[in-house]
Amino acid sequence: MGHSKREPDITWNYCDSIPPNRLKVKCKFCSHVCWGGISRMKHHLAGTKENVIACTSVPDDVKEIFVKLLETKGKKKEDCLNIENGTVKGKEGTSKIFQQKTMNEVCKDREFVIQEICKCIYGNALPFNLVRSPLFIQMLKVVGEYGRGLKPPTYHEVRVSFLKKVVDNIQKSLEKYRSDWEKWGCTLMCDGWTDGKGRSLTNFLVNSPSGTVFLKSIDTSDVIKDGKKMFELLDNIVEEIGEEHVVQVVTDGASNLVAAGQMLMEKRTKLFWSPCAAHCLDLILEDIGELPVFYNTIANAKKITTYIYRHTWVLNLYRQYSNGGELARPAVNGDSKPASPYIYEAMDRAKEKIAQNFQMQESRYKKVWKIIDTRWNLQLHRPLHAAAYYLNPRYHYDKNFNPDSEVLIGLYETFQRMVPDIRTRVIIDQQLEKFKGAKEIFGMDMAIATRDKKQPALWWESYGGRGKELQKVAMRILSLTCSATGCERNWSTFDQVHTKRRNRLEQQRLNALVYVKYNLQLEMRQNSREENGDTYDPICLSDIESDDEWITEKENPCLPIDASWMDVHECFGVDEGAPKKKRKRGNYLYLKVSLELGSWN
């Protein structure tokens, strides 16, 4: 006798799955994306706020359906507990005793299962936070749904067959980013480091409002000091992404990369090269730290920090009185939201705050200002930053907004580079007048009310439609990141990727693993932000205040790949029977440049 077909879950009537699998689902009412399947979507629609934000657009009758559904589910759990105790109430309220065998079948022994999972984690030295991973939770869910008789994956399946399938799935899933690059543009982010063996390694990612995509990691030891060679490398990657999609390339400010960036701009006449803002801010703070008035304080602070973290008993004593604070703590990543629209204003406000901390006495803060101005003028100030500042409605409609010639020149230089056709630039100039005067849709109540609430690029998408030419340019400018910090992750992983001791097959397989892991981690981070309703501004300017702590900001490690990842499928076509061989950098400065410098004097 065959099994009856299982009816589809009612939740699918109100959400859609996002390819390539059903790990992500999208609400049909508010378009919110949930990671973790329809189980979490039920809570989203019911408004329970259990591990997911509540839907703000769900009709009351639909919400009531899911509230009752979850209540029924909770009742079933309660009945299961009664069964575990050996009793369950019948229709007449009488207790019925179940045989032990039936109880074991209906309510399994969770403690035994968890113990086996934990043994696997302990025995293979897996990190404890694995159990928090959405991938781990989803894996247990599908295994449970499969039920008895699941044959574990073979060594060959894990190492070859399914690795290839996952690589293919990730490459397909990245197509959604490519379609967004066409609309919003993107930033090619690259950053390098030198490992313990003296090799120069460079990582390449692509950032857009949809998220960050990891492309590759290349051993650039032979070309890193040659500006022309680095230009050729950057040029090839721009070609791979599509020149029409790349608005800017961000690197650090090393002289060879500056030269490479200039050559790239000469060949690719529509894109911009920009130095990494985080790197420039690092240099600003390093320069400030070299001033005699601060040098000894900082040196002593570093010694104290080192001493505390090298002595366990001191560290434990410190933690008893620090209310959970650490002298070194993770920081927000720079690719969460586009930061370019804020960097220009942020530098001015930081300078103002520094002056206030010095009681507005010019003799005390002028050296600090000079350092900031020198780095800003020589490295960080770019036409794109000026244009982003001008087009940001939050600042443009402020009563104190008064752009100087530097801002206006940067704005029109940006238009000239991004829009070669003079007739189109004339149209943009006419549309710009309507933006300046808040005319037509720019002056509608909703447009006014959301000037400081929406991300600038999204504001332009909503209210710039009457001027398509200006809207397209503004959206691309305001969608940009201004740093390459998304590249800087767990560098020790690259030591394994780039080792010369591996044969080509093993090298390609490791590249595939790193490509998969890094992009899965980036996707989970993006999903987490979406599910938590992240409204974080990349640079908080509303309340720049002094910080009494001496804090070293560090990034959360993600994971990172070698230049030849593009040949990643080679490792799947090789005969598996063939003989085989055995086998502090990156501080993201969240622009609290307003450290309490005055108190150190």
TrEMBL record:
MF term (GO), any: protein dimerization activity
Family matches, as InterPro entries: DUF659, HATC_C_dom, RNaseH-like_sf
Residue ranges annotated for the DUF659 domain, each copy included: 153-304
Biological source species: Cajanus cajan (Pigeon pea)
Parts forming coiled coils: none
Span of domain HAT C-terminal dimerisation: 452-520
Pfam families, per the entry: Dimer_Tnp_hAT, DUF659
Listed name of the protein: BED-type domain-containing protein
Membrane-spanning intervals of the chain: none
